[in-house]
Design goal:
Elements (H helix, E strand, L loop, with lengths): L1 H9 L8 H21 L1 H10 L9 H30 L5 H19 L5 H24 L1 H4 L5 H15 L1 H13 L13 H18 L2 H6 L13 H18 L1 H30 L4 H25 L5 H18 L6 H29 L5 H28 L4 H6 L2 H15 L4 H5 L1
């Protein structure tokens, strides 16, 4: 395994990355496998367990609503825990410990999900896995300040998303084959290969991939930015977090306006990612066809992220993010016309063009405007705005569906968030952060 990683690091694509940068990029390759599973097969498996007419079964609309509510629960928990975990991880040599704990537990629960015997248990374990997964990303994102320089952040961050999209396809193809062999999509019927076996293979392959590709980062990462001293009590942690929030709200308008903009435009991004399969199934589209289009979208997202990584060498970060926001705005409006599988494919293509870039550029831009020694705490706050937005988006989907509305209207309504995010990001770019103001 080490020789493989060393060979990859010497290839033309990754030759300009340091060992720490390359290891950091690889974690995106690892965790993206779970993201892909959560966006595609997990909601399908959930609905297979949940929908029916027997005891304990529910309707399709109820399943969509409960799944959206579970996502909202995850976002609330992470929004509350993120700043606390981030502040604790900012202490010397603590970030790696928190990170590897979240990854290890997340991998264990990922495998455990496949053995769920009811939709309630399935959803409960899925929520636990998603919380640990999101917690690992809080620590991972804050590592960007440690593994690279400010001048290279856009490029390295974009590489992470780009290669994460391609890397996630490898375990996903195995999971997809297992899903089809177990009767998924009605293509094959094999009594010797029941649905549960397909789920076990899909979750296990994803978990093993997630763990193995994380190993280089665990070996090479060194926390160079940290806060001196130790946290003596929970009260001290909350005091520090409230102090930082007060500083942002009163003295750092650039960070504050960016967080508001991010809160608004990332709403649509997170909601569409989490509910992409629900969109297709609610329209009555073939599930295998949806998954194939989503797999193709990974390639589109890979190309899009690499294109924006190259553009970031010549253009400032904010205009590139604004282009991505405008692209998502158009995608939301296009959702009003969704009827066929081809329409779904066009929507997926549009999402793929900007999906990785809007997230990677937001992450690197935020890293540039915050104090590097407090990156864990600041990215915990970043998660409040990120996950809070996703909570609202998922709540909108659930509310529209329970009220009897269509999925088309629910997705189109997210365009408002992108429009407002566009305005606030422009306002943020015209401000100076606290460090620039002091200078």
């Amino acid at each position: 395994m080490n020789r493989l990683f060393q060979w990859l690091n010497r290839t033309r694509v990754f030759r300009d990355l340091s060992a720490q940068e390359f290891s950091w990029v690889l974690y995106d390759v690892g965790n993206s496998a779970y993201t892909m599973l959560a966006c595609s097969l997990i909601p399908i498996w959930f609905k297979e367990l949940a929908i029916g007419t027997g005891p304990g079964k529910i309707t399709g609309d109820q399943a969509t609503a409960y799944y959206s509510i579970s996502i909202s629960i995850v976002t609330i928990v992470i929004a509350l825990l993120g700043p606390i975990l981030g502040a604790l991880a900012d202490r010397k040599d603590k970030k790696k410990i928190f990170f590897q704990t979240a990854v290890a537990l997340g991998v264990i629960f990922c495998v455990t999900t496949s053995f769920a015997w009811s939709w309630v248990v399935f959803l409960a374990v899925y929520v636990l896995t998603k919380i640990l997964y999101q917690a690992s990303l809080t620590f991972y994102d804050s590592m960007l300040n440690d593994v690279t320089t400010e001048e290279r952040m856009d490029r390295v961050s974009s590489y992470g998303y780009a290669w994460g999209y391609i890397g996630s396809c490898i375990p996903f193809l195995v999971a997809m084959v297992a899903y089809i062999l177990s009767g998924g999509g009605g293509i094959l019927k094999n009594p010797l290969f029941p649905a549960m076996v397909g789920r076990i293979i899909g979750f296990t392959v994803t978990a093993v991939w997630w763990l193995l590709v994380t190993i280089p980062l665990l070996r090479n990462y060194k926390q160079s930015n940290y806060v001196e001293g130790q946290v003596t009590s929970v009260g001290a942690v909350f005091s520090k977090i409230f102090g930082t929030l007060k500083k942002i709200f009163l003295h750092d308008k650039k960070v504050l306006l960016f967080l508001i903009a991010f809160f608004l435009y990332i709403d649509g991004v997170g909601t569409i990612i989490d509910n992409c399969i629900n969109i297709g199934t609610d329209l009555g589209l073939n599930t295998v066809g949806q998954v194939v289009f989503l797999l193709a979208t990974q390639v589109v997202a890979w190309i899009g992220s690499l294109v924006f990584a190259r553009l970031s060498r010549k253009f400032r970060t904010v205009p590139l993010i604004l282009i991505c926001i405008a692209g998502y705005f158009a995608v939301c409006l296009y959702a009003l016309t969704l009827k066929t599988l081809l329409d779904f494919g066009i929507l997926a293509f549009g999402v793929g063009c900007f999906q990785g870039s809007i997230q990677s550029l937001s992450r690197s831009y935020y890293s540039k405007i915050i104090p590097p020694e407090n990156s864990g705490e600041y990215f915990g706050i970043y998660d409040i705005f990120s996950k809070g937005a996703s909570f609202l988006g998922s709540a909108v989907i659930a509310w529209v569906k329970l009220a009897g509305g269509t999925i088309n209207i629910a997705v189109a309504s997210l365009a408002v968030f992108f429009a407002l995010g566009f305005v606030f990001l422009i306002a943020s770019s015209r401000q100076k952060n606290s460090r620039e103001a002091a200078e």
